[in-house]
Design a protein that fits this description.
Number of helices: 2
Low-confidence stretches: 133-147
Number of strands: 10
Helix content: 10-25%
Order of helices and strands: EHEEEEHEEEEE
Radius of gyration: 16 Å
CATH architecture of the largest domain: 2-Layer Sandwich
Strand content: 25-35%
Distance between the termini: 25 Å
CATH class of the largest domain: Alpha Beta
CATH topology of the largest domain: Signal recognition particle alu RNA binding heterodimer, srp9/1
């Protein structure tokens, strides 16, 4: 078996209206539909029907977990190919009241309304420079993510 690409990411959320504002209004993803009688909203970056689905949580959760606890770490979105586009993205999220953190040369993170870490980055110099491009490993010939 060979995985061709990641199909989508699904998140449980507490408030669909806040989720719509964040992913639609702030990040600019297109809302492409709903499911389960309105309990799920789908968002697309433009290529697939949905890259992200957000479902209303069925139970109260503990909220964001400390870094390093097993589970989802972050979701990353490519916002361009230049530092100018990265700067524009940073200004945009700040204008929406978000506080960037975890800055590095080609990206930064923000939190969505449920505390999920969202990384925004630019791919400069082609895919080989992307922050999470798998690199060949000397162990068993498998790819390892470069973080």
């Amino acid at each position: 078996m060979k995985i061709r690409e990641l199909g989508h990411v699904s998140l449980f959320v507490r408030d669909l209206d806040a989720t719509r504002r964040f992913y639609g209004d702030v990040l600019g993803l297109a809302e492409t539909g709903t499911g389960k009688d309105g309990r799920i909203v789908f968002f697309s970056a433009g290529v697939h029907h949905h890259d992200l689905s957000c479902e209303l949580a069925r139970a109260a959760g503990p909220g964001p977990q400390p870094k390093g606890v097993p589970g989802l770490y972050h979701v990353a979105f490519d916002v361009g190919t230049s530092l100018e586009e990265l700067t524009a993205a940073r200004r945009h999220v700040e204008a929406h009241g978000l506080a960037p953190f975890g800055e590095y040369a080609t990206g930064f993170c923000v939190r969505d309304p449920d505390g999920h870490e969202i990384e925004l980055y630019v791919e400069m110099g082609g895919p080989e420079m992307a922050p999470h491009t798998p690199q060949p490993s000397s162990r068993l010939g498998k790819a390892e993510p470069r973080l």
